[in-house]
Automatic annotation (TrEMBL):
This is Mitochondrial inner membrane protease ATP23. It is an enzyme of class 3 (hydrolase). Keywords: Hydrolase, Metal-binding, Metalloprotease, Protease. One of its GO terms (cellular component) is cell junction. Belongs to the peptidase M76 family.
Length: 238
């Protein structure tokens, strides 16, 4: 689909089936629906733009993708859509498109994390031949990396870092989230998901590319982004 066209929600706004029931055709109701759908989509697009332009996690990943020959374009590779349940986003490997769930993302910080998480999947898809559907270990590895590097587990850390050892807790959080992510997208048993995550955990948890470290906060991510840029400047001069 050509994503530069106006969002389908707006185009379909006039046809909610109300015309079949003339007595239910309420101008107020129709315009409210059209407006709120448009607002959800518009708000999602605005937050996406802010994430891509200002969030250091996203910026680093966009640069890394570009360098790996997989340049990401806002209009072509992102879609703001309504999703079922409480899903926040997803990566569609068939189209290399990141779906952002406009009905479930309401805050900029949440948008930043979802964009980062899905960009890590896109990065893995770009750099390696990931078999998302047949090899559950491949999926497990990317989910471990996404949970570890996107900040998904950092907020929890802030709250509980005095209760548990920081490092231990971070690992537990990453493991749990990776297992839950697999169960959300594949029809496998909990045991299968746990086994896959545990088998690849050490190597995937310690693979910090393209960050070079675990960015626990936005300032960590800023340093990582600066180092990434310097690293490339250095290699470019060789
Ligand atoms: Zn994921």
């Amino acid at each position: 689909m050509d994503r530069s066209e106006p969002p389908p929600e707006v185009a379909e706004g006039e046809d909610f089936g109300y015309r079949l029931f003339p007595e239910r055709h309420s101008e107020a109701k129709l315009s409210f629906l059209t407006t709120s759908l448009f607002t959800f989509n518009h708000k999602c697009q605005v937050m996406l733009r802010i994430a891509l332009d200002t969030n250091p996690y996203a910026q680093l990943l966009l640069d890394a993708m570009k360098q790996s020959g997989c340049t990401v374009y806002k209009d072509r590779h992102f879609a703001c859509e309504d999703c079922d349940g409480c899903v926040s986003g997803g990566f569609d490997s068939a189209t290399s498109q990141i779906v952002l769930c406009q009905n479930n993302i309401h805050q900029q910080s949440h948008m930043n994390r979802v964009v980062t998480h899905e960009l890590i999947h896109a990065f893995d898809h770009c750099r390696a031949h990931v078999d998302w559907f047949k090899n559950v270990k491949h999926l497990a590895c990317s989910e471990i990396r996404a949970a570890n590097l996107s900040g998904d587990c950092s907020l929890v850390n802030e709250i509980t870092r005095f209760k548990f050892g920081l490092k231990q807790h971070h690992q537990t959080c990453v493991r749990d989230r990776a297992i839950r992510s697999i169960l959300a997208v594949r029809k496998v048993s909990k045991e299968t998901a746990e086994k896959a995550v545990d088998e690849v955990f050490d190597s995937c948890f310690n693979d910090h590319e393209p960050f070079g470290r675990v960015p626990h906060s936005k300032s960590d991510a800023k340093y990582a982004y600066r180092d990434f840029q310097n690293r490339n400047r250095y290699y470019a001069n060789l």
